[in-house]
Each structure stands twice: as C-alpha cells, then as structure tokens.
Records
---
Amino acid sequence: MKKYISFLALAALASGCASTGGSNGGELTGVGGMAWGEPTPYGMVLIKRGSFEMGRAESDSLWGTPSNARSISVDAFWMDDTEITNSEYKQFVNWVRDSIIRERLADPAFGGNEAFKIEEDREGNPVTPHLNWAKAIPWKNPSEDEARAIESLYRIDPITGEKSLDAAQLNFRFDVYNHTEAAKRRNRLDPSRRVLNTDIAPSNEEILISKDTAFIDDDGRIVSQTIIRPLQSEYDFLNTYIINIYPDTTAWINDFDNSYNEPYMRMYFAHPGYNDYPVVGVSWEQANAFCTWRTNLLRASAGNRFIEPYRLPTEAEWEYAARAGKNESSYPWDGDDTMADKGCFYANFKPLKGNYVKDGNLISSRVGTYPPNEFGLYDMAGNVSEWTSTAYTEAVDQYTGDMNPDFRYNAAKEDPYRMKRKIVRGGSWKDVSNFVRSDMRMWEYQNEQRSYIGFRCVRTQVGFAKGRKN
C-alpha cells in the first residue's frame, strides 16, 4: 500500500510540473499525468457501477409489503466481502484501549513519561501533540506509576474478583467534517455568493447552522450536544463526537425474554472461539465510529490523508450489491428457493417456527459459511442484519433521486425518537425467509444495540481497478 501511495505522490508531482505552454505548440493538450490504478483494499470486492430496479417489484398482502420498485443507478464502490467480525472489531477496541493508556502514561498524574506523547520535533520545535505509537506499553514489569496508569483502565468484578477492561471508559473521540452542508450554496461564507433554495439572487439573510459537539463531564460521563448558531466559519461544519465503542454484550439477554442466553453474553465477543463470527451489539453510531477509525488507521499508515474514507453503505448500494445487480433476484442467489436440491441452505436464517437449527446454526454463524453471491459477497442474506447510512421515513423513496440515492438525517439529541431511525438490511439468524430478502427494508433506532445487527464497510472506488486480488 505504501508503494501505491508513493506512486500517487509521484503522479501528482509529475502533473504539477507539466508544461503549460511552449512544447505543446500552443495547442490545448491538457495537463500530463501518469496513469494509475487503485489496488484492491484488503478483504473487499469491487462492485462495479450499474443500475437496477430497487425495491419490491410485487406487493405482498400476507406481510403487508407494498410494491415500490424504481430504477436507480449507483457508482462503483468497494465492499467488505463479509460482515465485520468480532476479531476485526477487537482491533478497534484494543486501539482505543492502548491510546487511552498512552495518554495516561504521558499524564503528570501518572509520572508524566514524555516518551508516550510527542510534542516537539527532533529540533525542539513544537508540533501538534500526538501519541507515540512506536513506544511500547510496559505490560510486563511496569514501574509503580506505569502500573497505576495501566490499571486505571481495568476494573475488579466485586462478585468474582476477576479483572477486566472497564468498558465504560473505552470512549473514542473523533471529528467529522460535513462536506455536504459546507458545499450548499445557502451555506456559503460570503453572503454575496449565498443563494437560498427559494431565491435566484444572493441573500444576506442570517444562516443558522446545527453543529454537534461532545465532552466528558467531571463525573466521566459523555455529554453530547447539538448547538444551533449563526454561520461564522468553516469550523461550523466540523462536528465532534465521543462514542463509547464497546459492544453491548447484554443484548443477548435484553433482546429475548425468558431465555438462557447468559453464555452468549459472557463469551460471544470475548471468547476466541467466536473471533470469526460477525460482531453484534453495535449501534449505528458505533459502526460509524469504526468507519472513521478504520479510515484514520489507513491514512496514517499510508501517509496520505486524501484516501477515500470507509463508510457504511447507502441503502441503494447495499441492495444493488446483495442482488448482484439483477432485477429478478429476490435473494442474493438465483430463484426464490432458500435451499438447494440436496437440502443445503443458502443462508443462516430461521427456517421453521421454533426450529432455528435446521439450517445448521442456532444463532449467527462464522462469516463466509454459506456460498457468496455472484459479486463475491458472503452473508448478504441472514446471519446478521446490517446497518446502512440511510435514514428511515415512511416516504424515504420520495426524498431521493435516481442517481446514488441516499437520504441522510443527522438527528439532534433533542429530536423525537422516531427521527433517529436508520435502515437495516439483509435480515438475520432470527428472521424467517421473507425478511432476509434483498428487497426487504427494515429499520432500527441509531443508538440501539441488538444481538442480531452488525455491519460491513464500503469505500467509493477511485480510478480504474482491475478486479480482485486474493
């Protein structure tokens, strides 16, 4: 990947140094540059641009599902070939854990070891303070101060006496710049260039901007606020979030009344035997935090902040990918049968009333257990439902166009709860066959954590890729 980034840098340098006159004989020849192709991101497949009939082609009176099919087109994007697994999400959890410990090791309250936080360059000039990830955490034989810093992130169970991470402290702070709002003509900083939606001429009307911010109070609690204030600068489009990123392992108990699911609560995320299972108990907000962290991780490693970000798929992208671009496909496979002639199921769902295990699984299954669709994507039906970026309303189709459609609503804390619904797709291990259809739309509140909802990431394609590398 680093070679690829260096290659892009050279290409940009070559473009910037290209002659704009003289050798081209005064003709319009364009600015020269080097051809390049985007390599396949690890664990992702390329979904090429295309169009299809999105939504249900026929109404279903039994389930009360109306016909809402319409033709839409989507651009090319990369998509994770499986849901994000427990193992992959643990990498996020461990990064947050280690970043907090490094902050505390550099804190004067714990001895103030400056080696864990860089504030000056080699010449002694001040730089933006940042953690030194090259400095290893002294897990073995720490000093007294170092031991206090490390132990401060753990808790002792008052009943069992076992030591474990204090999940309540695993908070991830990140900033998101709202490019869409910043680009709107009504939000231009220069009033002479500002045009409101109902005007055809510039307007001097005061523009109010909704800005999200967050902080940790004196009791260690996250305080999230939505501030509405007059537009003043580009920073008004920069939103700050603090999200506790640990999955809600209690979802296994709270989602099912009068069921003995304690083993899943204790082991599903913690035990290595479930490493390759899809992560669950993750809210829409946590999934977005993961996408931001994954983007920052890649950009830092590659030394390039212009890499397209990881994000949740739009509802249209998800359905197009699940159906492999086919209008006639109700499921990620051909036909409406849920099992092959030999009796093998195509997905992990609930085949019969009370019989979860007929398909070979009781709850979720290891990712990639069932065959992929024609795009090379696994578990696009069943296993776990998946978050999308798209906000849900009963009339969502009326709010979106037919090119890269996506309806987004950044719900403020004070908004009614019904405005905090996000679309989930694919159905899960607990759903019957009708709800694992590729054209079935469902929703969940963005802050809810369920034992049957996970996610996968996408990235918009840049350049001209040449298929998938294994």
---
Amino acid sequence: MCELILITITGQDKPFVTSSVTEVLAKFNVNILDIGQAVIHERLSLGMLAELPVGSNTDTIEQQLSARMSEYGMQINFRPITKESYLDWVEQQDKPRHIVTLLARQIGAEQISKLTMIMAEHGLNIDNISRLSGRVPLNSRDVHAKACVEFTARGNPKNPIELRASFAELANSLDVDIAFQEDNMYRRTRRLVCFDMDSTLIEAEVIDELAKAAGVGDEVIKITTAAMEGKLDFNESFAKRLGLLRGLDESVLSDIAANLPITEGALHLVSTLRKLGYKTAILSGGFNYFGRYLQEKLGIDYVYANELEIEDGKVTGRVVGKVVDGERKAELLRKLAKKEQITLEQVVAVGDGANDLPMLGIAGLGIAFRAKPLVKAEANQAISHLGLDAILYLMGFRDRDITE
C-alpha cells in the first residue's frame, strides 16, 4: 500500500525552495495530493501532502529532502498520514463552503479571536485566512484606513439564524463589519451593481436639501427619517414631502447638485467597477435631475429615479410618471438583469433605507450600507464602518488586484 506523508517546511523565504523540494520528490515519482503556501513578513510556510509509490524507501526520501532544505536554512518536518485520516479529509471537502469577511478601520487580535470563536462554536472549520486590504504603515493615523481579513470555511452551521445573530452582536460591540456568504460561482461572476442614491452614493438626502432651500427643512427631514426607518409608507411620505416643496424656484437645483457630498469610497468603487467591465445603475426614490448629475460625475451606466415636475420655473410639488418606490426598484433591477442577460444572483444591490429592502432581497449580494437599524437587521450583508469601496472586498477583490 502506498504511504502518505505530510511535509511541512518553514523558514526565511528564498527563491527555489518549492522547486527544490519537488525536484527531490520527482526523482521518486511522488504524487502531490495537496499543496499550500503562505508568506508572512518574508517567513515561508509550505505544506505538501505526498503520496509515495509502493515500495519507496521513506527514510531515503526524507534524508534527501532534509539535506536539500538545510542548504536553504529551512526547517522540515514529516508526519505520516493514515489512509483513514486521508479519506475523512476528502469527505470534508464535500461540505458547504462559506466566506466570512471581517472589515474595520483597524483589525486587532480581539476581533479575530472572538470572530473565529463564533465560527468554531457553530461548526465552521477554517481552511484559509487571507488579508485582502493593503499593508498598513506603522503609526498610521488615516481616518479612512481600511482593514479586511477573509476567512474561507467549511461546514454546515448548526443554526444559521443564530450564527448571523452572533456575528451581528459582535460587529456592534467591536465596531466592525462581518459578512457571511456562501462560497459559490456567483460570487466571482457578479456583473451589475445597483445603488440607491441618497445617503448611499451621496451623504445627503436631496429632498431634505431642497426643503431647506424652500424653508421647510425641519418638517421634511422629520418625515424623511421616519420613512427611511420604515415607520411611514414611502409613497405617502413622499407625497407629503413633495407637497411642501411647491413653489421652489428651479434655479436652486443646480447649486444643490454641485454641492452634493460624494460618499467615501464611491469614486474609487465606481471607477474600479467600470475598469473591470461591470455595469452600474442608480435606482433611486430621489430625483432624476440629481441622478443624471451623478451619472456624469461618476460614470454610471443607468439612472432610474423620479422626474420632478417643474412649471414656469417652479417646482409643482408633483412628479411625472410612476413613483420609484421599493417595489419599483426591485422591478427595475429585474429588468436591468434581463437587459444585461444575467441572473439575479449576478447582481449586487446597495442601499440604506426601508424602500431599498425589496431590491436588496432579490439581488445575489444585497448590502445595507450605513443603513437604518431596520434595514441593517433585515439585509443579508451590511457595511457600516468603512466607505463604499469596501464592497470590493465582499466581491472577493484584494487591494493589490486593483489599481487607481
């Protein structure tokens, strides 16, 4: 019967280590069943699961490998693996795979310790840990710093609802974001990203800014807040707010558009998506005037929002056509997916308000971004502590994969 040996090599990373090890093994017709390598701060850790042919002289192979690695100043270890252990490992590969993504301004040992403890308690076994964010300079004081660590895990969570609840509780207590996704082919084949506009692509609610210009800011802001929190019907609240804008001069729209605060990371995210060939869309309960402004500024492909009715240079307090509410957003998302000839699983949707929940719910990756509590609780994924470009991490991209 063939012999199985787990070979592990550690030491200062140097060229030709992997090729030298496999060169020795090749002389004995060794089959490599598994291989993995990681380098942390120039420290190499290399592992190989080797299948030695029947009749091989194990001592000779180990001696030659040890001699070759000593030339490189590397430490080498050999551990026999039983056939039963190997077959059990093979069976484990059929278990569902998941991606857990930890995001924060800075990641410390406590965050990783508590996160991995929850994963273990719920039956998830970690296969791989990778840092997706760039290397952090010492003594960095960047308020927009990003840190991301991705965990690949196998297993069936004992209770998925309780697992997500534990992740949410930990995220709130440590000021981090934690995403939990199935590791499937769709994660790598997203093709369309749909954004809400107000309080998502921009750090403002346009209707509130219009209300301030009309002198009814406090009243409209109060209604807006209740609507986004799901305390008021969107269409009803929208009609009330629009009515309060009646008589506003059209000239204020351009000034408001020019001063809209773009959300942290939005420019980087959209420009990166465009370079990578993704389509982007604004699906907004706001207004087309401002959506088209952002379309030109950011390079968005599609814009669907409400058409603010203006007569004789004045806002009438009405919109033209069908109101873009939550259900309309979901309908538009479906239409865009069909137009782009992709499945809903290939769509990313991002929003913050209760009227975004329908589209977040049908998208393959629905993300509540700096969202109201109700939305954050109901969405599958949430980002609250980083900018919009943190979405790239949830899509599996590393900083080093992306150039400005």
---
Amino acid sequence: MSFCNDSLKRWSQCAIALLCVIVILVGFEPPASALPQGNAIKDPKALLRYALPIDNPEVRELQDSLEDIAAQLRANRRWGAVTSDLSRAERVLTKKSDKILAGVVADKKSEATQLIEQLKTGVVEMNEIAAAKDKVKTLEKRAQLLDKIGDLEASMVSKFPFDIPQEYRNLPQLKGRATIAAKTSKGDLTIVVDGFSAPVTAGNFVDLVQRGFYNGLPFTRAEESYVLQVGDPPGDEVGFVDPKTKKYRAIPLEVLVKGDKVPTYGITLEDAGRYLDPPVLPFSAYGAMALARPDVDANGGSSQFFFFLFEPELTPAGANLLDGRYSIFGFVTQGADVLGQLKAGDKIESMKVVDGLQNFVEPKNA
C-alpha cells in the first residue's frame, strides 16, 4: 500500500496550476507575505547546519559568508562578491573568535580552537583560489570549510533542547543526529537524520534500521512521480507491527517551526492555522526524507518513508504543499546521483547506523 505518491503529486501540481490560472485570468498578485521565499536553501548540508539548536550570532555570520558564495558563483560568477564574502569571514575569525569559543561546550573548546585555526588558514587559501577565478576549486574549498564550520557549530550543542511530550515517550527517540549508510541495488547513499527537529520520527527510523526492517525492501515510484517511497513490508501489513506488543506502531506528525522551542505534534501546520510558518526542515532540497502517512490520518505513519526528488520547475523551493503536512526527519547528503537512478523494483540491500547511535533512546516497550 502506498501512502502518499498520488496525493503528493496531485497537491503540488494542482497548487501550481491554480496559481498560474489565477494570475493569468484575473491578474491577481498575492501579497508578499504569502509568497514563497525565492532564496530557499536547496543544499541539504546547509539546511542541517542551520537546523542545529544553537544561538551564536558570530558563528552564524561566519557560516552565512561562506554559504553565500555558491549563490554568487551561480550569478554569472560574481568574483567581487566572493571576495567580499571571504573578507567578512576573515574578519569574523580574526575579531570574533573569542565570542565563537564562548558558545562552545567546555570539554570541546580545545577541538573548537583547532577548528578556528584551520578555518583561518583555509580562508586565506580560498582567497588565493578565488583570485585565480577557479570556480570548481573555489566550491570544493568552500565545501571543506563549511564542513568544519558544521563541526564547530555542533560543538556548541550541550544537550537535547526540549522535552518530548509524555504521550510519545514510549516510542523510540533520537536525541541528536545519526548517520545512516544505505546500500541499494543502484549504489550507496549517506543519510543524516535529525533528531533535534523530529526526535520521534527520526528515532522510529533508527530503530527500524537497527532491526534490519528495511533490508531487502523494494522502492515504489509512480511514473513521472517526484517521490521515491520505500518501507512497505511484505504481506498484508502496511507498517511496522512490534513483535513484542503485536501492535501497529503509529508515529505522530511532528514538525518543528522556525522560532518554536518544541515541534508541533499531531496536526498539520495548515490545520493549526500556521500554513505560512516555515519549518526548520523544509522540502526545498533534493533527497529530503519524510515519513509517509495515510491522507486521512496525520498520526498514521509507521515504517514507510519517501525521498523527495526536488524538481525546480515542478516543485519550486518554498512553493509546495508538503511543508507542514509531512514530517521531514533527514536528508541524503551523499549519493544524489544514485537516488536519481532508483526506480520501482530497485531495493534497499542494507542500512546501517554508522554514527550517532549514542543519541538513540530505545522504545520503552522494547
């Protein structure tokens, strides 16, 4: 049973078509506040960096300066703007490193100090590469430095930032992040799941990976669909039935909105009257992962999940009806080319947690 393929495609296509009809026929122009952001972030690693629960303006300024470079190079290779971004990064590292270190957890300050020194050296090297106007090497160096910034930001997280509601504490939880290595019949994927934004949804996924639940399961994908779904077990079941309780494990809809301290549970953002509020993890990146569910039950998800195959023309960033309707719990960070090749009938050969298992909390009924 497929929970979402047809409805996802129908919702997005209808929304875009309706907007076009309104604009063409009646000349209606939606208010600016109702329009999607045109500069939505499409890089899954950047989304994960920004989703970390930290409050350090200086390290975010450092990150922003390097994130911006990709946009400048897409815009007809604006090397002057790239130089300005690098100068801003250098100023932050030179003049504000003490404020960055102030946000680091005590036992990680030594590691963070080394990262800052490596970033200082790296920015100087990147300036030299940019001066030669080598786009490929500039982007490669940028990616390396942003990975270090991500490590620096991760060193600022001291503890899990909120309490999971009592009614869901019997479910598996991921209080942090985990990395999954997935082998498919077309190649390998690296997946990062984010328990900071969706601890119950991510915890359920990690638990099922640990059980070997997904090993050998086939993908399903409707023709021309922009979602690739997997997780339907063989037989009559449509989700995970706990072998100890003999009950279907239902996972609540779980969406963390930017600015909120805890996720919204059990209701879509639209039904909550918050359809314009942006989630921390949006459907703006190729390879976003979300829990599938029945159309009529926001809390009916279980084992089936889908990869969002972002297509700018059909599903422009920020202009879809998926944000707030489904629980995103991670992104494919490596293997996007493999993801694009997977079709109905291809299989997950194996999945394994390769990092972050210490953040996993076993279900209480296990």
---
Amino acid sequence: MNTKLNNRPLYEDVADRLREQIFNKQLASGSWLDEQSLADQFGISRTPMREAIKVLASEGLVTIKMRRGAYVTEVARIDLEQIFTILSLLEGQAAKETALKATEAELNLLDHLHHRLEKAAADRDLEQFFEINGKFHELIQEIAGNRWMNGVIADLRKVLKLHRRDSLTSTGRLQNSLVEHREILRSLLKRDEQAAELAMRNHLARGLEALR
C-alpha cells in the first residue's frame, strides 16, 4: 500500500513565489496583479494563481479591490504607526513571558543568536543582520508559547517586511538596533520581565522612528 503523503498544494508554492517577488520588489507596491499574465509566466492555470493571491490577501500583502482586481498592498504612514503599536504590545508581552518561562538552554540560544547579530553588524552585512534579527524575535515568541499571539505577530511582520529593510539603511540605525537588542537580551538573562517588556517596546518605537 502506498502511504506517501500528498504533495503540497500548487497554490501554496505559487503563493511562496509571489510573496518572494513582493519582498524583492519585483512586484512593486501598488502594482496590479494580472492573474492571466502571472499564470502564463508561472506556466499554470488561473485557478491556483487566484488561490495564491487569496492567501497573500489574508496575510495583508495583497489588497483585493471590488471590481478592480488585486494589487500589492501599499503601506501608508498611518498603517506603519498602527502596525508598530500592535507589535509593541504583543512583542512586549512575548518578551515579558520569555523572561519568566525561558530555560537556561533557551537563554543560551538567544545569547548565541545575539553574538551572530553582533558579527553581522561588525561586517556591515545587512542581509545577514536582517535574517538573524528575525530569528531572534521569533525565538522570543516561540519561548513565550502563545500561538494565537504569535500568529498575529507573524502576519503583521509580513506586511512590515515591505518596508523593514529600509529602516536599517538609516544613518546610525544598524548600531542603534544592536544596542537595543543588547538591552533586550540583558533583561532576559536577568529574568527581569518588566525590563524585558520595556526594552522590546522601546526597540519597536525606535524602529518606527527610523522609518519616518
């Protein structure tokens, strides 16, 4: 009997490819997504393309306009402010819970990630810094262990990723971000939940300022 699991649905693979094109700005903010043209480009029918676009719409990366079609989401200033406000509350709470729940092994993992972050900053490797920064935040959320909260954070960060890299190119932002991460880590290692929450919220507030 063949017990092989079914392959991943085609529309999920298509969604991954579209998402990457959006993050890489091959599909620019505000651009119209021509279903037929994209389907032809990917060598698929319109049905999986339509389903993939629905996935990206549920993540906030695509906006579907009545009788006008789907467009890559344009993130306005007010959107950024609202997203950062929510992230500040949720990620602050995640840092607080991590300070209370983390095992020594998990704290060591955070410390290891931070050392890698320091190296990326010293090398001026923005791509590596951005990737490790994401892993640092994700590990804090994983340790906190609230899957509902983490799901909201993940969706918001996908939208934020449309602009997030730009903030690190601001003068002095890379070094300031590193200092803020040091404070978050220091608070976590001390298991000071109030300081960890405040450090995380301050970090996100500074990130919003950098995008301004």
